[in-house]
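Good morning C.,

I know you're traveling, so I'll keep this short. The sequence:
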Amino acid sequence: RRRCARAEDSEEARMRDYSSQGVGSKIGSAGVASSTYSNQDRRERLRALALETIDLKKDPYFMKNHIGKYECKLCLTLHTNEGSYLAHTQGKRHQQNLARRAAKIAQTKDLASFQEKKKVTVRKTIKIGRPGYKVVKQLDPETQQRCLLFQISYPKIEEGLQPRHRFMSAWEQTVEAKNDNFQYLLFAAEPYETISFKIPNKKIDRSEGKFFSHWDEDKLTFTVQLFFEPEKPEETL
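The tokens, ready to paste straight into the viewer:
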């Protein structure tokens, strides 16, 4: 009876030992690994595989600092060894930052290509000389305002074009010495050379009927008339 009781006790002890290994474990083997150990083992295997297949010298975000540790320039993280860095590159944070970086680069390329499309190609036209012109000086008897009338003739202007004009300050031009007492009125139309007129640097009266421009498509003549604002009494002395 004692021998039977001891045999039963030893068998029960063995069963308890086996049951402690977990459900699904085999007799004579270790217990079923927990999720923590499984994840750790998986990371170790991925790290070993990455070390064999990935060349860190080609990674633009991998950097070894002055104290011998490794940094991820994309995520600004610090790592003790190459394996730790490679494990980081497989993580969620690094992958999200890579996706953001790729989206930003794509957006920049789209913007650059859009700006290139918007660039206007400079036309290269052979100039045929200066256009003919006529300048008339007048004085309004009622307001005592000085007036200038410009008539520019463009008999060989390119089809579909209209002459343009603009004012230029003395500091923009590089032909003559700078003089604040004068400004320049420019006229341009292809294939003629751009011409300019030196006029007093007075304020232009842009009220209704005082300043106008007109392009006569029949006579191919461009007209600009302008009035200077009335001078103050102290200016006429």
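Safe travels,
E.
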